[in-house]
Amino acid sequence: MAVGSKNSKRTSQSTIIKVGANEMGKLPPQAQELEDSVLGAIMIEKDAYGTIADLLRPEVFYKDQNRLVYEAIRELASKDQPIDVLSVGEKLRSMGTLEKAGGAVYIADLTRRVASTAHLRYHAQVIAQKATARDLIAMAAQIEEKGFDETQDVEELMQEAEAGIFEISQRSQKRDVTQIDPVIEEAFARMEKASKNDGSISGIPSGFHALDKITSGWQTPDLVIIAARPAMGKTAFVLSMAKNIAVDRKIPVAIFSLEMSNVQLVNRLIMNVCELEGDKIKTGKMSKEDTRRLNTKINIMKGAPLYLDDTPSLSIFELRSKARKLVREHGIKLIIIDYLQLMNAQGSSFGSREQEVSIISRSLKALAKELDIPIIALSQLNRGVEARQGVEGKTPQLSDLRESGAIEQDADMVCFIHRPEYYHLYNDDKTGKDLRGLAQIIVAKHRNGATDSIWLRFRGKYAKFQNEDEAIDADEMMPVAPGGEGVSIQSSMNNSMGAVSFGQQMSPDGATYNGLGENIAPQF
Questions:
Q1: Is there a single domain that holds both residue 118 and residue 259?
Q2: 259: annotated active-site residue
Q3: Domain CATH for 76
Q4: pLDDT digits (tens, 9 = 90+) for 68-82
Q5: Overall domain count for the chain
Q6: Catalytic residue among 35, 71, 259, 518
Q7: Domain of residue 334, residue span
């Protein structure tokens, strides 16, 4: 009984709010005269419908009769049939809605209300804007009613409100057709800017020379997916790249980490920049040389335009809001997301997780276009890689992308990280290349360029990727003796405590190996 009283009270309160608005004389935004004039013009002028077809949907008409008339007009246009008073009336009759639309007299009367067709598109824009205003009012009313419900979770309500506004904005956004001349000028301006850069890099350089040769740098407004199985080093790869871009080149970068905390990310960045093993950072026990290296190199990180956000379970709508602010206030040129499958699209309803991931990937692509910057999102691969045998079998494929084929479809570029030594593959049978301590970066999809693969050096104990030809310490290439101590860097996905941990790591067959495939292997 108490529950019924509570619901009754809430319904009553909502009714009072609506009645109060009517008593104040407020009517929903509308432009009925313009609706009549536009429909009349479409039935008089031969090409009028083509002028406004991209602006108007049946739902934007306030009057029910006008909505039905426009539905009939769209049906005729879709079949390339003539649109006039007689054909529209006949179409309404065949659809069984002629009487609801006001009958033949009402349709004929619409043509008599046309003063001029000179400003037809402007009038259509006004009608669309009024409909958008009504949508906003309806959504706000729903949020208001739920706001009075104390059983509603406020965070979820905020997500729903943001999702609603995003959906309305997507429906209302229309871009006019652009004549080619200004586009040519913009293309030339970009080519001129690219010509002033070193080499052939026209985008944001990753710092990995062989990769930049394929991509010409990360391009705007591309959505780049970097995918791998656990233990391949996804986070280490993007952190190494962020160091190259933000620390070395001072290009503003934002990292959204849904898996690790900001402190964990910075600890790994310190390992990378200062080349200190993780256990020394964790325990603080360092030699004099370690301390000297830390104090010397950590200064290059200070003041770097690198911005971190470790909001867990980040929604696509929160990301949009934060990304816009970062671009506006800090001039961010690149966004990195670690990782896509940990995001959500709260505020919308989905039939499956695959549908939700599809919405997320499409939204990331739309955000990259809106901000005109590249967005790099990490992604997990499914277990199909583990089930396959042989050198070729362990190489990731586009079909291995986890949870949604839409990720492959929406991405401008898909790259895989593959470390053969993780699977005890130490030599390339075709080339004889020594694969120990190396990682293969495979560009499997490249919408605007070639696909290829390159090799980088992976230094597990420093959570660091670097160019294959860069010098490293000689002792890193020496095999670790049996029973020797190795370093493993686990992501929090593999660590229930969510912290960086160090020690021996088991490979798929239960053995432990080092970076050379002997006994103990650094894994990440």
A1: no
A2: yes
A3: 1.10.860.10
A4: 999 999 888 888 888
A5: 2
A6: 259
A7: 200-474
